[in-house]
Design goal:
single chain, Udp-n-acetylmuramoylalanyl-d-glutamate--2,6- Diaminopimelate Ligase, Chain: A, domain 1, Protein-Tyrosine Phosphatase, Chain A, eleven-stranded mixed β-sheet
């Protein structure tokens, strides 16, 4: 594609002095190559405008920048001022790295449940002989490739490149976790989604969005921008889902426990072995058994069934796939080394997620629940006392510890969590996360349940500017095997 064609599509009045064939696009000066366009976007920490000269030195033949800034007149490459560089980056990425229409892209957004839902859908499609690639919080994977991305939803250039490669690898589906940051920053503006799933909305990322209304507005963009032929798959039990249904521009399919839901769960039973319920859909009913734990996972199963059914997956295949699904790393993941008590690792790092997980455990745990958790530094401080209150109310013992303190003082974070716990809460403090986990395991007796919350699948801790290797599941296994205490 010629640069002049891009300029014309952007409807700018800038005259092109020397046209060229665009090789690529980048918003990171370190990755710029010869014949590339460099888009100078403002990041949270750095402004790409400061790296224009570096981009040119690496071969950039055009610079796109915010029109309110003054660019050096001596720059000898094409320059294009635009109102919103982020939106422009998204558009140009979709033009240069064009995604073949053979790929059906399904988005999943919401505060909680995105990862489990994409894993479920991937498993259902695979069992039905339909290959899918997945991009999300834990990793990006398709065919034999598995790799990490810096964000739950990659930046537009990386995202379009990955999706294009998925299509060229003959995949039928791409399953994409879409974060509120990605929606706010226009990362998915030019992706043609076939379906979009809304899981739920609760307090998170308010340090970025400011208010719940702004957070909801960011999430809503995904559904407002869907084409009329697409489907919005919405959790109708969630109050924000009810609002979303009214403003969605596409066709709508609802799910939940509500009688009004198009796809619903009835006759629910929960225990330590999993979930049992009747799946009601399209005037049909079938019994479902899943190894997943907790009522919240029924919502994830329903949403995955909704999307799969739209793609022609039948009841029998859904039933078999849900039963054979073994779960997601770090999502109520059981660690069993033969000890006489339950141990679970979960990613719950928001008030709603922690409350949901603890309530799920209480459905089948008859003895004590011992909860170990902390809160991340440089994140919304308002969640800390809320999570302290929830843990104190729903646990028998709470051990407060480090999560990813980042630049904050760990003890200050812990004190803010503690401030929300009632005076009756049985609460201990141990900053060292490994020692806190060991303390919980030593306290546990037969029939108790230990929940290690907050980090889930993560294999690191961020303390100051250091990324330290740490994995809750591996630490638990090491401690249990070393202790040989309370083991069958």
């Amino acid at each position: 594609m010629k640069f002049s064609q891009i300029s014309k599509l952007l409807k700018t009045e800038t005259k092109i002095v020397e046209d060229f064939e665009v090789s690529g696009v980048s918003s990171d000066s370190r990755t710029v190559g010869s014949g590339d366009i460099f888009v100078a976007i403002e990041g949270l920490d750095k402004d790409g405008f400061s790296f224009i000269k570096e981009a040119i030195s690496r071969g950039a033949e055009a610079i796109i920048y915010k029109e309110t800034k003054s660019i050096d007149e001596n720059i000898c490459v094409e320059t294009l001022p635009v109102a919103c560089p982020r939106k422009t980056l998204s558009l140009i990425s979709s033009l240069v790295y064009k995604i073949p229409s053979t790929l059906s892209i399904i988005a999943v957004t919401g505060t909680n449940g995105k990862t489990t839902t994409t894993y479920l859908l991937e498993h259902i499609f695979k069992n039905g002989g339909l290959e899918a690639g997945t991009i999300g919080t834990i990793n990006c994977r398709y065919k034999e490739k598995v790799f990490l991305t810096p964000n739950t939803t990659p930046e537009p250039v990386s995202l379009c490149k990955i999706l294009k490669e998925m299509a060229e690898s003959k995949l039928k589906f791409a399953l994409l976790e879409v974060s509120s940051h990605a929606l706010k920053q226009a990362r998915v503006d030019n992706i043609n989604f076939k379906h979009a799933i809304f899981t739920n909305l609760s307090s998170e990322h308010l340090d970025f969005h400011g208010t719940m209304e702004a957070y909801f507005a960011a999430k809503s963009r995904l559904f407002i921008d869907l084409k009329p032929a697409a489907y919005s798959i919405i959790n109708i039990d969630d109050k924000f889902g009810q609002r979303l249904k009214k403003i969605a521009k596409s066709r709508v399919l609802t799910y939940g426990f509500s009688k009004e839901a198009d796809i619903k769960a009835e006759n629910v039973s929960l225990d330590a072995e999993g979930i049992y319920f009747d799946l009601c859909m399209a005037n049909k009913k079938t019994s479902i058994r899943s190894r997943l734990l907790g009522r919240h996972n029924i919502y994830n199963i329903l949403s995955a069934c909704a999307a799969a059914s739209l793609e022609g997956v039948d009841f029998n295949s859904l039933k078999e796939s849900i039963f054979s699904f073994k779960g997601v790393p770090g999502r109520l993941q059981r660690v069993d080394c033969g000890q006489l008590y339950f141990v679970y690792v979960d990613y719950a790092h928001t008030p709603a997620a922690l409350e949901s997980v603890l309530k799920s455990l209480r459905e089948f745990v008859r003895n004590r629940i011992i909860t170990v958790f902390g809160c991340g530094g440089n994140r919304d401080r308002r969640n800390r006392p809320l999570m302290g209150e929830i843990a104190g109310r729903l646990s028998d013992v709470v051990i407060l510890t480090n999560d990813n303190p980042r630049d904050e003082d760990p003890l200050s974070i812990i004190c803010e969590i503690k401030s929300g716990a009632g005076i009756e809460a049985n609460l201990e403090i141990e900053k060292n996360r490994r020692k806190a986990i060991r303390k919980a395991l030593n306290l546990a007796q037969e029939g108790d349940c230990v929940l290690i919350a907050g980090k889930g699948h993560e294999n690191y801790q961020i303390i100051k500017n250091k990324r330290i290797e740490f994995n809750d599941t591996e630490v638990i296994k090491d401690l249990l095997k070393a202790a040989h205490v309370n083991v069958k």
